[in-house]
Amino acid sequence: MLSEQSAATVRATLPAVGGALGAITERFYAGLFAARPELLRDLFNRGNQAAGTQRQALAGSVAAFATHLLDHPEQRPDAMLHRIAHKHASLGVTPEQYDLVHEHLFAAIAEVLGDAVTPEVAAAWDEVYWLMANALIAVEKRLREESGGPGWRSWEVVERVTETADVATFRLRPADGSPVRDFRAGQYVSVRVALPDGARQIRQYSLSGAAGPLRQISVKRVHGDGAPDGEVSNHLHARVREGDVLELSEPYGDLVLDAGPDTPLLLASAGIGVTPMTAMLAHLAGSGHRAPVTVVHGDRSPATHALRTDHEAYAAKLPDSAVHLWYEQDAPAGTHSGLVDLTGVPVAPGTRAYLCGPLPFMRAVRAQLIAKGVAPAGIHYEVFGPDLWLAGRS
């Protein structure tokens, strides 16, 4: 909770600081990487930095956290904090790095806002920063302790499956033959690879299969469409085959099933967002889920629908399921043409929904679900890449 004096100062300066956060975060990252270039090389996603999406996500999270402190001083925005903390824990972010971020972030604030940053203003925003940072540090510590793992671990690729022209599934086992810890359906792992220029870049990929002795990830090759192609996804597609070894983190992520067997569920995905939903369906099929499960998916065409066979097969194993598919092109009989539209989709009372896909898709589905009576608190989502929902970007 913000002190009374700091709350008044933050409220008075939030419009100015919020309006300048884009410039502040740009200066922040420039200063941080000038001082510590290895962070850009080996920790931060270079593609997101080049595109500016990481700056937008940071600005959005800081503004959202400050606004929440003012509007709900008795509550902490745990949903937002936990989503960030899971990403940080999977990347191996350390508590000491928060001091480094503080140094360069406040240097950027002073540089951009100049004389407007009085000692009182600096102290108030310092309080905001450390409330957020210390909360994240605590959650990340707990997550690392719960994972019980060593951080990074070597995994051997035992099978590679071509799902579509741009999606490949990699099945992996521990290179040292040690036991595999369980994971919760919907979680992801970080994958760290050595690129030809010497960088060790990290990306997160959802676990797309059932829990068991192997880990399974399904990777979509990212085409830049005018921007640089995805570094890690293209590396995995071009270079990684059976017998190769990858470094994986322990599983993290808060988009996990937390409903009992009698809770109606709706699993909505688009594109490669199908990956966590397939793992969820595999878990539900194997755990005796009794309540209705509605499966919704949108894709460009049946040929681009990764894991479609698993998607439909796991749903068919459930005692009460319905599958609704939309394709923008070449929609076969029994599916829908165009974009996902839930108008004619029955949604049972008390439904808990899980969404994964592009932000415009998730925003549209969320709005339709709320219109159908689904409680906002019962709608959960996962964003691949920087979370721009808070930044108001699509």
Q: Could you characterize what this model shows?
A:
There is one protein chain. The protein is 43% helix and 19% strand. It contains eleven helices and twelve strands. It has a six-stranded antiparallel beta sheet with strand order 4-3-6-1-2-5, with helices on both faces. A six-stranded parallel beta sheet has the order 10-9-8-7-11-12, with helices on both faces. It is globular and about 65 Å long.
**End-to-end distance, in Å?**
31 Å
As a percent range, the share of helical residues equals: 40-55%
Based on secondary structure, the structural category is alpha/beta
User: Main β-sheet: number of strands, strand sense, barrel status?
Assistant: 6 strands, antiparallel
What is the count of DSSP helices, taking H or I runs of 4+ residues? Answer: 11
Low-confidence stretches: none
**Helix and strand run:** HHHHHHHEEEEEHEEHEHEEEHE
Task: Tell me the overall shape.
Answer: globular
Strand content: 15-25%
Please, what is the average pLDDT?
93
Number of strands: 12
Strand order of the largest sheet: 4-3-6-1-2-5
Radius of gyration: 22 Å
